[in-house]
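Re: [help] complex structure
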Amino acid sequence: MTDPTLPSVRDPAFAQALAFAELPPDQRRRVGDELRDWFFELCAAGSEGSPDQRARLRKVAAAVELAPGELGCIDGLSLAPHPTARHQSVRFVQLAELPEALRPRCARPSPAAPELAAVFVDPEEFSFRSFENIVPLDALLEPQLGEPMRLAKVRRCGAARSASAYLYRLHAPDSALAALTRLDTLGLYRPPFNAGSRGGERFIFHSASLAAALTQALRDALPPAWAQGFTHLNPVFRCNRFRPGDAPFTRHVDTPYYDPNQRQVSRYTLLLYLRGGATEAGPATLDIEDPAGPIELRALEAFDCVLFPQDRPHAGAPFDAGDKVFLRTELIFELQGEVVEHRQSIAALFSKACYLDGESVFAPELQRHAAARYDRAARAHWGVREAAAQSREAVEPYVHKRFRGLEFVTNGHDYYFTKKAASLRECAAVAILDLLNARVVPRPEDTTNDERLGDALGLGCFRKLCEREVFELGGETDPAEAIAARLADARACAEAPLLPSDDALLDPLFPPAETPAPELCCPFHTWPAWDATRHDETIDLYERAQGFARRRIRGAPLLALGEQLYLDLDRFVVEGDKIHVLSDTALSPVNFAACWNDETRPPNYIDTELTLEAPHLLLPPIAFAQLGELVHLSLDLFRNTWMLRARPQPVPVPRIRNLGQEDFEEVGDPSALASPWMEAAGITLSGTTPSLPTGPSPWWAYFGSDHVAEIDPEAALLRELYGDLHEAES
Amino acid sequence: MPRADHALALEQALRVDPNDAATWQVYADALNDRGDPRGQLIALHHRRLAAPHDPVVAAAFAEQLARVEARLAERPLPVFDGPHEVDGDDDVVDWSDVEIRPVQLEQRHGFVLSLSMALTPVNLQALAELLAHPAATLLGTLRIHDPSSHLAQPEDYDYDEEWLPQALALDRLDSLCRLDLRRLARLAVEYSPLGKSAIARLAQTESLANLRALDLRYACIGDAGLERLATADALSAVDDWSLQRNRVGARGLRALLGAGPSDARAPLRRLDLRDNPLGPEGAAVIADSPRVAKLERLLAYQRDLGPAGAQALGRASQLPVAIRRLWAGVAHGLAPASAPV
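Output below.
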């Protein structure tokens, strides 16, 4: 539809007539901006407006799909400035993290926090690391905190002689209290993922300054018995809002914080109420279980602060009148001589909870299972109702998946394959891809039961590309037999879903350079015979660039090139009953200008032939067992001594290019010529701390300037490429 | 098989693949049968590989090596480092004070396996002598370049069907082609614009009938030149073509990769087509060719193929799976925009 008089997106007839892909760019932008504005108007009306309005908006958005070039990407999530068929979930990010072209199109959720932008993400792309949106608010809060805060004890709570909870009142400068009150007005609330077990809305934010101020206040206020080993308050806060009539937060145990490397653990929950209110009857404002009898708090004032042990089940109801707004975080303590025992059963519970939570985006019926397991895991952490925690659930949910012909069954902790389906290493790789929900480009023939994927132009995520069927097994049933029967008809894949990352891949990516022609000194003197592909310095940089790319590709157990996935079999080491996934962590140092009387530089002649994704993975060992025809893998990503790391890493593969007269005419000034591969490689290294620009570097890095940054702003890149020169001279 | 034929077959195999350890060991037996000390040298070499720290083996190897060297010294190899010549028109850049690439002889177990040399009269004479030398029985690879070649960019020549640039001295090439080159498995004429006459000369050289690999990178042969060479009977055994920077497109590829019912040419093993204006049409020729089913290596730049060309390769059922899927991965997300300048 190219009608210049395109109706408003809110017009009921609009969605039926929309052929978004065929619209000219300016109308696509208009439609997108209107969708965005409509969405936030509904948000302002409360819970995104009425069901009918939400349905109408979704119908329009379902016809909207953006091309990859129109999207941003943060933390592995693709971002859109407005709702689309895929991008349905709002997230708040730092404006500065967005591509410049995208920034003007994104809504600003709050005038008080102009550095924040609202973007839309695809929930099917969530991985366990990107599930939650933690909004950075330190820039907003720190200037307002002013003088130190103080917590004045109001009373102890609980019937026992040893208190089970404490009630404090926060005293702080008016500016600080006002800033905390304003949190409620920032427009950042979203319905929580676990909406099945709680009502209200919440958002999560990070503020180191607020945490530091409250930490100091707590040091002065905590009773001695509670203060031993206290280090700090967790700077990640959850801001919750319950309106009268909202469903209460059902009884639960908070998931503890644990950092094995720092030997730190949380012990107490802190609730800071930003508004006062009361519940006269029915469920209390706050109800904390206690061995000596329940602790009920019905009336709370603004800036009341409740502290209680984190292992206590608790529940909370909305105020009878007025919004109930409170912050929740936890007190962190240093382990002092205690031994934290890793319980495989708890880890498995938590893994399953996280996985089923993510899968519930595709299969909503899994949400209740996830919530149940979160709670059991949290209770089990504290040894609460240990007997109940050890018993199985009545039913255990599993997901039967199919990825490019490879079938498997999983619950997020256990993965089952048939031996004939794939090799052990391939099984491990697929399990990792599924658990991480890695970004995988769909092939044209990929089929899913998701109509919206269609011929999607952009990236997909692993889970989205899987066909799935949820089934349940009785809690007492040994799953192996049932799953083996289910997978019995699984056929060997017509083509392997993953290819080996071997010479068949590497050889064409890194062809040898041409033989240098010694008579080519520089473009100026040898034009028109000049040929960059045969110049020794260009070849030298090309070979170093190849080494840069090759190291990263070789260091990655899994690679993605477009829609193709590659597996470095050497990085999957099977020892006993474990599969170890190896990643390179250390970059070994590797291993000149005579006449160059020209305004171009060797980097101008090194282009990028293609870019691979070689994610840097740090994974715990994967336990496996063979049960007849079944292969059973166990992935415990939350084990005590391991923390999962998965960092995207694009790797540009170089090629030498020549520049023609038209290239110079296009830029005018030769110093404006691009250095495509160096710029792409610099992006690969972005986020690393650049080395000091000292020591020898190629002559072209310093030509005409005292600074390395003239040609390549990334000193780290130069150090890696030319580290052998530095070592030779030192 | 008669012993002599057996030995000839082994020699041919080693000329094609000098890294085949198993063939070397069998050949060592053949050499031992005729009292050639190099047979024992080869056997000791492999024993040393298996037991690198065995002093007895090391000593025996050193002793045998001395014997072989003494035998070879009785008839020295010809000298290749002759003077170079520069000639041409007035506007030619004077290369007289630049160094030429040195001669490179690869030797193993007393055999010369490969030779890289400038195409000069002195070297041609030396090559003729070498071909008659017992050390050159396994000479399978010859790389030549013409030091008088002009290193101009093909684009400057603007060559087409009617005219191809020529820098290689035709008389020298003719001298080369008159030699007995039947033992060659690999021939490289690098970075030297050939010209029509030289292309025709190569195509007519019957002694190149055993050639398996032909490297004509930067030779400015164009489609017409490739047509001539690809359909030459003398070159029908070539299954490894290096054709970088030759302005080859769909037409030349059709000649190389098209196959009729009577086509006796072998399937291709390796193909290097970098820096050629292949385009989607050229990609289609590759994708549809029955001669690509056994390719072990296909090198091309995605920018030369374009998005449609890369996709065509990514869907080519004729291509081996690994190559097809690599191009399927490359093809994704390719946009027609050129690189930023």
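Chain A touches chain B at residues 68, 441, 443, 495, 499, 504-505, 507-508, 511, 514-515, 517-520, 526, 528-531, 533-534, 560-564, 607-610, 655, 657-660, 663, 666-667, 673-674, 676 (CB under 8 Å).
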